[in-house]
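Lecture notes, part 5. Sequence design as translation. It can be helpful to think of inverse folding as translation between two languages: the language of shapes and the language of residues. The source text, in structure tokens, appears below.
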């Protein structure tokens, strides 16, 4: 059986989520780097026609969309399950995944981190401070809801790590490193403790991208 291939830049939050899932399942994989901007070029468009990352291959089966890839990994490989069996916990996991995709990434990744980190460092541009300020209220709601939904559990949706944790962690890990994220996260000690709990896992150690 061939090793799975993950296409995308190591620093992408979604690429990191997929690699975390593979590591949690104990699956060796290949990271095929797609440099920033190259996701719009013909080779990658053949893998992902919407010019996003990651794309994924396993045994000649090609897949894109992070949620689909994460569920495939959990169901295709042996190891500790990453989706709860209980119907309520399963629904909560999916709710949190939906929150990250629909509200968390657009505000935190697409607006704040793009302008504060990616634009100046990779494109030499000037951050759009108005866009950052406009996105911050939605980002604060995301943090508050994750904290509320997690309650006193050690992980976001369950007593054990689930796909919700693996999708949320990279985005919030990066968010904690910029001033707009560090201050709101400090208002949620349980969420900060959760970040530390995930950060200490072996899966993070073996997939951690270079610091930005």
């Amino acid at each position: 059986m061939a090793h799975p291939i993950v296409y995308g830049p190591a620093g992408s939050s979604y690429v990191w989520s997929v690699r975390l899932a593979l590591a949690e399942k104990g699956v060796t994989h290949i990271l095929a780097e797609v440099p920033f901007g190259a996701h719009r070029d013909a080779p990658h468009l053949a893998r992902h026609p919407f010019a996003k990352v990651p794309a994924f291959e396993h045994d000649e089966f090609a897949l894109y969309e992070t949620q689909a890839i994460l569920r495939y990994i959990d169901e295709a490989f042996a190891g500790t399950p990453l989706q709860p069996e209980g119907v309520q916990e399963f629904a909560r996991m999916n709710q949190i995944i939906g929150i990250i995709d629909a509200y968390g990434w657009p505000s935190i990744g697409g607006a704040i981190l793009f302008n504060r980190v990616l634009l100046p460092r990779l494109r030499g541009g000037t951050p759009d401070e108005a866009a950052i300020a406009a996105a911050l209220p939605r980002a604060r709601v995301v943090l508050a809801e994750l904290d509320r939904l997690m309650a006193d559990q050690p992980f976001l949706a369950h007593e054990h790590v689930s796909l919700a944790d693996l999708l949320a962690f990279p985005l919030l890990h990066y968010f904690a490193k910029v001033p707009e994220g560090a201050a709101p996260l400090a208002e949620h000690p349980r969420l900060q403790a959760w970040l530390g709990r995930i950060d200490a896992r072996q899966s993070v150690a073996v997939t951690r991208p270079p610091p930005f």
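The translated text above is only one of many valid answers, since several sequences can fold into similar shapes. The first helix runs from residue 13 to 24.
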